[in-house]
Structures are given as structure tokens and as C-alpha cells.
Amino acid sequence: MKNKIILCIAIFALTTFFSGCASNKKPILNNYSPMAVVSVYGNSGVPWYEDPKHSGQEKVDNTHGGMLTGAINRTLNKGDVEVETVNERIDSAMDAIFYQLSLRGIQTIPQDVVSNSDEFKKSGNSFLLKVDDRVSASSSKVISSRSSKKRKALAEQTGAKSLLFTEFTFYKEKVATSLTKKAVAARVELAVSAYDNEGRAILSKKYAVRSDQTVEYENGRYSRTELCELFPSTVDKILEVFLNDFDFTQTENNLNSEDYSNATRIRIPQQNAPDSTEESSESETYAEAEK
Fold first, then answer.
1. Cα separation, 83 vs 16, whole angstroms
2. Does residue 100 register a pLDDT over 80?
3. What pTM does this model have?
4. DSSP letters along 28-67, please?
5. Rounded Cα gap, residues 109 and 35, in angstroms
6. Which of 2, 9, 81, 255 has the highest Cβ tally under 10 A?
7. Does residue 187 come out as left (phi exceeding 0), alpha (psi in the -120 to 50 range) or beta?
8. pLDDT digits (tens, 9 = 90+) for 134-177
9. How far is 82 from 89, CA to CA, in rounded Å?
């Protein structure tokens, strides 16, 4: 009797383990190729980052502002390189997305096909979005991913098997270089939402990294130009962290094949998109770079 009880417990444990493994099976992004990069945008300035763990307060979102905030800031801060380079910063981030995806064999829909679709033309860049503090890449828009119906329509019109929405947030962050000295690092946060061609969520994740290099900070002064020059490599770094979460070794169709040499596979955590009305609450992951 005792042996039967032990056997039943063992079977239950194994069943639970394997069912858990099955439920955690990751989607393979290569099966959602080609991908349409729908929206790439970020904040217009470079505010100071305050770690909520150190301040004891929740991080205040001072990157989006409100009505007219963005337009006023861009006018008042004319001549500030951190503000004036915003378009270059966002366009460079969008180029980096395409480049990093292509390196990993993920096909993308040409951006002119996306921008010429009816759904893209009807979406985003409303009056309220134009006057707040978010700036899109020159060939993109600030578009919400909230409506699954619109996502599905956009996929149909562009021929995409998946849609990607990205938001970058750029910060400057003080870091200690010694007991008495500090420096300024570039900090980038990235929110990614991806959907299949039916408008269903594939993933939703957030990342944060800090630049490997820093800018000298003394008596409250630092080089804004040198700081801005750190953002492109920091964007590359956060995209690599994001993509390194996934497995690029196989495709779903070749899992049982003996030849994996030409296969490409990405495993993506199956989490819900932050703006989806059908899915449950957002899951967040921060990949913090070691200083």
C-alpha cells in the first residue's frame, strides 16, 4: 500500500512537471515571418533617470508629458542637443531594429508597404499625439496596439504574419565611478509588443540597459553631445539583449529533421500585450546591464 502511494505521488509529480514544460513551450518567431514593424517611437528629450529602489518612490513618467508639453519643450529647449537630435535618435533606433532582425534571418515587410496601407494611414499621429512628448521615426507613427480588429486588418493589408510595436525611452543616469566621483551614462528602456496576423498577442516585454561607456560629470556639468553619441550603441545593446532571449537554432517545421544547418528558430515568452483588450495583464522583464 505504501509503495502504491509513493508511486502515485511520483506519477503526479512527473505529470505536473511535464505538463508545466508543455505549457511553457515558446512560440517560434520565424513562423511569424515576414514581420511588419508598425510603430517605432520614443520620448523627445533625455530626462534624468531616478531609480525607484533608491528614491523610495515610484518612478514618475516624465517622458510623455501632456497636451502641448512636447511642442513647448521643443521650443524652449531649442539649441539643446539632447532635444535637437531626437529624430536622428529615433530613426537610428528603427534602422537598428531592421538590421538586427535581418542578421537573424527574420524577413520584414518593406516600410513603404506598411505606410501605404489603409489601416496605417488611418491610425496614430492624432492631434493629441502630435502635441505630446512622443516622437516617431520618420517612416513610422505613434500607434496604439489596442485594437485586435485593426491589427488583423493591418496584417491582411500588408501581407505580414506578425506586427511589431516598439517604444523607446531615453534617459541620462548618474553612476558612481569612485567614492567621490560620478559620471553620466546613457540609459535606454524598450517596450515591445508583437502580434500574429489574427491580432493575437505573441509577446509583451520590457527591457532596460545602460551604456558601457560614460561621460565625465563634474560640478553639475557634462557633455551633452558626448552623451547623445552613446545612444546608438546602447540601442544596439538593448536589441541584442531582447533577441538573445530567444533561440535561433531551429524552425518549427524542421524540429524533426536531421539537418538543422539552415534552420532559424526563436523562442519567445508567451506573454500578453500591454494594450490588448482581450488578453490579461502585462508581464514585465527588466534586463539590467551590469555596471
1. 53
2. yes
3. 0.74
4. BGGGG-SEEEEEEEEESS-PBP--HHHHSSPPP--SS--T
5. 6
6. 81
7. beta
8. 899 999 999 987 789 999 999 999 999 999 999 999 999 999 99
9. 9
